[in-house]
């Protein structure tokens, strides 16, 4: 199981920490909330309690493995989980390996933007004839994946290819233009469970298809998530990682720590922090609470990479405004190990490194950063991965989805909606001339421009 260490969140170990009794004050209500949640499980929990979604992806295996490349087009919750999975669980040089080195699994390209330079460069890497394109959009309306879909379809048609042999749509089971087109044209489709919102959907076909195509063990992802859920539903408050993460972050927020930094001491884990940024920001950043009061709440999530950001951000975290709570991600086992050669024995600045492992240096830096922060009175917690594999990554996703649900309860906001994001989508439609959205064109004539 993942290991959670809250030592430096507590006042007895760090001056800016929390008193045990102020945390415990929420134990009863949070535990009751989790019991209610267990009685009426949210969609993202139900999604890992069934084989349905894994099976739906497995059923496409024969089709998927006829291709060399998988190109995923989605945005936000329809992309960030895929990216996090691929970085965490595939070698960094995966796409430059030969098919044999990849054991026949596919190269994976995930394009989550409409930057023409980026899309064009990614497309340059693949032969459309050997590429499967997975268009992911829960709503089937978002401008970015829809524009990218049209571009891809145009390319496939220009090659004279039968589009239905190169496309998979991942979308709502009933609604939306992708479902309509897919039905009319016999395009293969995967369902996103209707009660699972974008940023909670990584362990549904949204994230599972690209994981499967890259040869990841999607069953283990689900097993890890399920075990994290069981632990959260049944564990007492002080042994409950999701409850503790949410409660402590909520309390720090109340004390003015309005920024939550997730700092990964592993390049592979870094993109989990990107996924977390969306989950925490979009779920908890709300103008109104559940009673309709204007509250303007939400903790700003920030991602950082150790040791790199020790030489940039960490000065600010130590001595700047005391408005941050830090979460470190680290691994106890790297897949590859490099020993630093013993050279320059007469040079003390180099000699002490000789014979040490790079992993030891990186993990010592993590401890060093945490202790320096503690010296400055700055709170932090640590999540240790016994190893970076499907099982533990699945746990991570589930713990944070649950922590987000608990934090939503503590902040008294709805963690599952995103009215701010939706308004931006409508304004884009208006600016791009989509019929029916004229009222959202709020463009003002420029009065001051230099
Ligand atoms: O979490 C969310 O709901 C959003 O970030 C969506 O995932 C994002 O806006 C993309 O939406 P869709 O999948 O409907 O295209």
Automatic annotation (TrEMBL):
Residues annotated as catalytic: 282, 311, 425
Gene Ontology terms for molecular function: carbohydrate derivative binding; glucose-6-phosphate isomerase activity; monosaccharide binding
InterPro entries recorded: G6P_Isomerase, Phosphoglucose_isomerase_CS, SIS_dom_sf, SIS_PGI_1, SIS_PGI_2
Record-listed E.C. numbers: 5.3.1.9
Pfam family, any one: PGI
Pathway it works in: Carbohydrate biosynthesis; gluconeogenesis; Carbohydrate degradation; glycolysis; D-glyceraldehyde 3-phosphate and glycerone phosphate from D-glucose: step 2/4
Principal location: cytoplasm
Catalytic activity, reaction form: alpha-D-glucose 6-phosphate = beta-D-fructose 6-phosphate
Compartments, record wording: Cytoplasm
Keywords for the protein's UniProt record, in alphabetical order: Cytoplasm, Gluconeogenesis, Glycolysis, Isomerase
GO BP of this protein: gluconeogenesis; glucose 6-phosphate metabolic process; glycolytic process
A GO cellular-component term linked to this record: cytosol
Function: Catalyzes the reversible isomerization of glucose-6-phosphate to fructose-6-phosphate.
Family membership noted in the UniProt record: Belongs to the GPI family.
Protein name per Swiss-Prot or TrEMBL: Glucose-6-phosphate isomerase
Gene name linked to the record: pgi
